[in-house]
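Exercise (ungraded).
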Amino acid sequence: MKISVKVPATTANFGSGFDCLGMALPIYNIITIEETVLPGTGIEINVISETDDDDDFAIEHIPKDETNIIYKAVEMLYNSIGQSPSELRINIKSQIPIAKGLGSSASIIVGGLLAANELLGKPADEAALLSIATEVEGHPDNVVPAIVGGLVMTSQEHDGSIIYRKLPWPEEWHLTICIPNYEIATEIARSVLPKEVPLADATFNSRRVAMFVEALHTKDAGLMKLALQDRLHQPYRMKLVPGLQDIIDNLKHEENVIGCVLSGAGPSILVISQKNNLDRIKSIVNDTWENYNVKTDIRTLKVESNGAQILEASYL
Ligand code: HSE
């Protein structure tokens, strides 16, 4: 039997919502898991890049054995029903740029889990899949929207269970993703964060997340502008993303720009704006990053309201 799953990219954090807010985007990975018939063949992992930019380096460094994150996810699911995975061929067709802050690893975890769950006859319900995916990824803000779609607020509770709620995104607010031509592994982007933060910074962010939810419900762009501000992760990650501060400064006074944040752990940048100033935004980001010798792939995207979908289940 062979199962394919299409999983969307995600952008996490939205500034203040560190490790909490995430949204699915219409860029996809397709993960296929096939039970191979030959005993003793073990686990085979193949990665095929379908991105426009040169992802070969990142792809070459993806482990093709049991140390791959997808295997960990699949193994946890099998173990949860007292089994172990064996003789599996896993193919990852990757359109989501790797290590760019667009949820590539989350999509692989989610795709592996959902495909394995189908292969096993669906022993895990949504809650179990959310918990396993979050445990493997380490935080829920990418894996949850990758599974359920849309914009979500997420929380991993002490018992490992996941709480999430979908939030509305105003149609008239544009999302422009600016993807630079270099990678940052999430582990590196997390290693620069402090273990403890000043209480004033924690309260700053909790006020902003409350504003974020209200700004969405009332479509209040002025409030959203404040809501996107962050003191918990972006200040520490600035040094990993040269030009980020300049881009924020250069866009600050642009008409219709609501805000500019790191997408997930970076290095991609998400610009949120109103109305049709997209060309202007693109040229400002492009020109600013050019000063740092960074080339950019800039795309304006809609929210993907669907989460991961099973594409085919063929029985051999
Ligand atoms: N919330 C996560 C982070 C998203 O900022 O590290 C990246 O995977």
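Further reading is listed at the end of the chapter. For now, observe: The chain has eleven helices and eleven strands. Residues 155 and 163 are 5 Å apart (CA to CA).
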